[in-house]
Amino acid sequence: MSPGSLRADAERNRRQLLDAARAVFAARGLDAPLDDIARRARVGNATLYRRFPRRRDLVGAVFVEPLREVVATARAALTEQDPWRAFASHLSYLCELQSRDRALAELLTARMSEVDELDDLRDIAFDCLVELVDRARAAGAVRPDVDHADVVLILMANAGLVERIAASAPDAWRRHLSYVLDGLRPTGAPAVTTPAPRLAEPLPG
Fold first, then answer.
1. How many CB atoms lie within 10 A of CB 196?
2. Distance (Å, rounded) from C-alpha 129 to C-alpha 125?
3. Is the whole model's pTM more than 0.90, yes or no?
4. What domain range is 28 assigned to?
5. Residue 92 lies in a domain
6. Contacts 24+ apart (CB under 8 A), 128-132
7. What is the pLDDT of residues 138-183, one digit of tens each?
8. Domain shared by 83 and 182, yes or no
């Protein structure tokens, strides 16, 4: 086999691994078994560990671009002139990301000290979120006692909600977030328009 063919095979294996890891991490979180990723990518475990010797190497390769997109979206939100719309739309964006990707839900609320670039991007995204909260509070668009930590708690609660009832009510987070946003406003919150979920069975205990 020629060197060009070897390079093409190696790149194809790498892309298959990254695609598989993205899907498995999204469904099962950052602690998903690496064997499942290799199996989904249709490569041997040895190939996975040769390309990505440590879990953090794979996580970094998969999530740098998505977190760059989060940072870009946060910076774009800061250009919105209406402080409430800027804050509420960005928080909605983050919650929707969490609803689609369990691993991103974890990355948005927990620092991963072993992946420096992800930590740096997460810090930038958080700084932008802090600025969005500060702007909304200064404009009187949110209650004066709203703290940055409250927003992190909202994201953590949303991640838990999504994980528990994603299969039976995948859009329930929207209704929950509507009530949360109403609670953050000082007065005059509009009616919640997202319909209540119709659960086929009781919530897991």
1. 9
2. 6
3. no
4. 1-53
5. yes
6. 128/71, 128/74, 128/75, 128/77, 128/78, 129/74, 129/90, 129/94, 131/78, 132/74, 132/77, 132/78, 132/83, 132/86, 132/87, 132/90
7. 999 998 888 888 898 899 899 888 888 877 888 889 999 999 999 9
8. yes
